Amino acid sequence: MGILHILSEVCKNFGKKTSIAGLNHAVNSSSHLRRFAWLSIFFILMVFTFQTFLDTVLDFTSYPVLTSVNVTRKFNLPFPAVTICNLNRVQCTNLVYTQYQESEKMKLSPTNGTIDTVQLLNELVDLTKCLEQLCNKMNKFVGPVRVGPLGNYVDTTLLAIANLKCPVSIHIGRNCYYYKSIEEEAYKLNNTELYNRSIEAWNYQKCKAEEACSYKPQSDVPLQVRFEPLKFCEGKKFKTPSLFKGKFTKRHKNPLIMVEEAKFFNIFFKLPIYIQNAIGHQFESKLQYIHQYELTTKGFILSCQYRGESCLEKNASWTMINLPRYGNCYTLNSMNYPYNKLQSTSLTGAANGIELSFFVDQDNYIVSRLSEKAGVRIIIHEPGDFPLPDENGIDLQPGTATSIAIQKSDIIRLPKPYKSECFSNWSETPYENMTLDHPSYSIIVCQRICLQKWLKQKCGCTHPHIRQIGGFSKRKICNITPDAKENMDYKCFLEFIERFDNGSYNCQCNVACLEVDYSCQNTVSTWPSNEFWETLALELNLIDENLLPLPETLENKFRTDIQKNFVKTDIYYQTMSVKVIEQIPKYSYGTFIAGLGGSLSLYLGIAIIMIFEILEFIIDLFSRLGYYFVKGNKVKNHQHQKQKPNISSEILKY
Description:
Among the domains are: 3-64 and 600-653, no CATH class; 92-238 and 253-260, no CATH class; 424-510, Orthogonal Bundle (Helix Hairpins), CATH 1.10.287. It has helices spanning 3-17, 23-28, 32-61, 92-108, 112-128, 130-140, 152-162, 182-189, 192-205, 209-213, 256-268, 273-278, 314-317, 389-392, 443-459, 488-501, 533-539, 552-565, 589-604, 608-643, 647-653, and strands spanning 65-73, 77-78, 81-86, 215-217, 225-227, 301-306, 309-310, 318-323, 327-332, 344-345, 354-359, 376-381, 394-396, 400-412, 514-526, 566-573, 577-585. By secondary structure, it is an alpha+beta fold. Helix 4 packs antiparallel against helix 5 and helix 4 runs parallel beside helix 7. Strands 1, 6, 7, 11, 14, 15, 16 and 17 form an eight-stranded mixed beta sheet that branches. A five-stranded antiparallel beta sheet has the order 8-9-3-12-13.
């Protein structure tokens, strides 16, 4: 009895007793044709079963996910953070005024730091043409003056820095008839050095407060003021460019915005942080206007209301961040400030949201391609997220009211070993020590930190657009001026960016496990209306009620300036329903077992009990084969001993 006979006998016995469909029929069939047909069907289906079983196992080990989209109703929702930026990064009046202040400091204490700062400010004033803009306006300014922050802000600041009557113009933007003594004014300014110099100059020249203000009211028209010539602008003549020069010039080989922006960054980032903040649009203005009426200045953010209550207190709810392309930006309801008033809301609609209005101040925009657009950039994001105006911002147009209805969406992903391999926090990345100012993990911020790290390593400088992320604000920036001759920074920068875009550098950045997004539906209307602009002007102290009605020309001027400089927006929840986009594992333990059962039973009807039949078959087969090999060796040894000749007996025969 050979091995083949044993295999045949064991398989035949298993086929007669098994409950596996097809195999039982094949063995018990009396016809050879039927037996062949059933065996063929059985083996074909067994191949399909094995393939399905293997696919199920491989699919399970790849950790697949399913994506579910649900809409859940919430009783209340936390209000998002709102970041607001002016589309103009440097405010000309603040720049010229800061230049004047730093120049005065340099005269009092000429150190290397103050000298360098003044030199950089001079270069920035020349690049932005701020002084040219202000002086041109002042030279033309001999007619009606606008009361309030629409234009008088520019003029009075120049009056202050012009130093007209006294060595130090102590009445910086103040009302001449309000302060009776220079000591009181200097005390208001809270500047000891300026106070001492002012007292000395005041006593020496015996100046009067009325003379220090340097304007001459005309009695016939209350709103008309004629300013004396400004010594600060004397000798400065600037060309007024015409709209067309008769022919179009050839297009520059490099985008001019890149050239100007690179020059701007090379100057701006060398300035101290406090100077960078001082020359941007301020949350609230620290200057007052020179006029016979006492007025209060308005900063960038005019008003903020949440459910009818003011949320304009800077120290209560707002934080500031300086972004290279937008200057000073202000965030309401940031996680970085724990004392926020905006907690959560359970009601929808504009009456239960935030109402904001802004003073764009186009008269103080820098004269260059760096301010091609006018308006406000607004970003709605999670309180713990870093504001990304370039990616997520919405532009608000001057002279309009924009209603922004938001809906919250939660995107939930699964961590490793699932395919998304998401990160929950910065500790899962190699950049944890570089993200102290960014509490929430974000793949965009992570990629920017990675880019800066590689760029610093390869080129020895950092990208100017994103240097405020990851602690790179004090590092050398890359000179990305395209026109600079032999600019090694620019050459290295271009080569690096190309390779970075192609994926040559490894960034250990994955998507966030929890990502919160706010979808926005915007509607825009004209603001203020023809019937409301006068009421708005009175509310903002732009005009005096006793001067109404205004002459038609002045009325048109006011209306145009208001539409040019004011913006309003409402931000509110459109619905309390939250869209939840969630990844869930495709297989749990139960679904995996069910998948295996389905792959086994689909073609051959194999159940779990049949597995024990197969185990019994394997045990029988190996036991028979083992018995055969053991018994076969004993038989062979016995026969070999019988056939072996007895040498000793053969020898005796002889």
